[in-house]
Design goal:
Largest sheet: none
Strand content: under 5%
Distance between the termini: 30 Å
Number of helices: 6
Shape: globular
Helix content: 55-70%
Number of strands: 0
Length: 94
């Protein structure tokens, strides 16, 4: 595993913990993703699941800002982490 992917997974885990502690957003994530609390527990360390957490987080700038401010991260770090996880590759359509 590359250092970049390891760092991305760390940010994904932090995002999941932040999300789980947010009683307003957690139900929204569960509804949008179709995941259950048991799914979260079972898949918390899976890169693809962490990618889905970051996909959700990146849907709203206010969520990104709240997460980054809580974790002391730069605002662009969740996007960079997402790019390093499965499915985050840049697609060139030309």
């Amino acid at each position: 595993m590359s250092a970049s992917q390891e760092m991305a997974e760390d940010i994904g885990i932090k995002a999941l913990i932040w999300l789980a502690g947010n009683e307003d957003l957690l139900p929204v994530f569960l509804g949008a993703s179709g995941a259950s609390v048991n799914d979260i527990k079972a898949q918390a360390g899976e890169p693809a699941f962490l990618a889905s957490v970051l996909d959700f987080l990146l849907m709203d700038d206010a969520w990104v800002m709240g997460f980054c401010e809580a974790e002391g991260l730069k605002y662009e770090q969740p996007m960079r982490a997402r790019a390093a996880l499965p499915g985050g590759e840049q697609v060139n359509w030309t």
